[in-house]
Amino acid sequence: EVQLVESGGGLVQAGGSLRLSCATSGFNFNDQVIGWFRQVPGKEREAVSSISGYDGTTHYADSVKGRFTMSSDSAKNMIYLQMNSLKPEDTAVYYCVLAPDSSALWVLRVADYWGQGTQVTVSS
Hints:
The chain is mainly β. 6% of the residues lie in helices and 50% in strands. The strands form 2 sheets. Strands 2, 4, 5, 6, 9, 10 and 11 form a 7-stranded mixed sheet that branches. It has a 4-stranded antiparallel sheet with strand order 1-3-8-7, with no helix packed on it.
């Protein structure tokens, strides 16, 4: 059974940092594309970042490029999203997701499996 469990969200002031973690299980880490979506009620779902289990390649949305860093620890089956220089517009529920490929995540904005989500709130 695939499981994705996020942690690390919270309330932070603008300019601050948070690190989200995603504990994964039930799939071959090295055969998948894992990403982060964020969702604000009333707005479109946004793909934030992704990492390829094949070669570790990362991609980022323009809105977070240079501020967010995604990494993985395959030995621990953990995914991380380091978020620096946070802005109020980063406020959202962040979901760790497992996608069949990068196109599904970035173009179609769909995923096969989702975590429960973790709230990130950035105050101005």
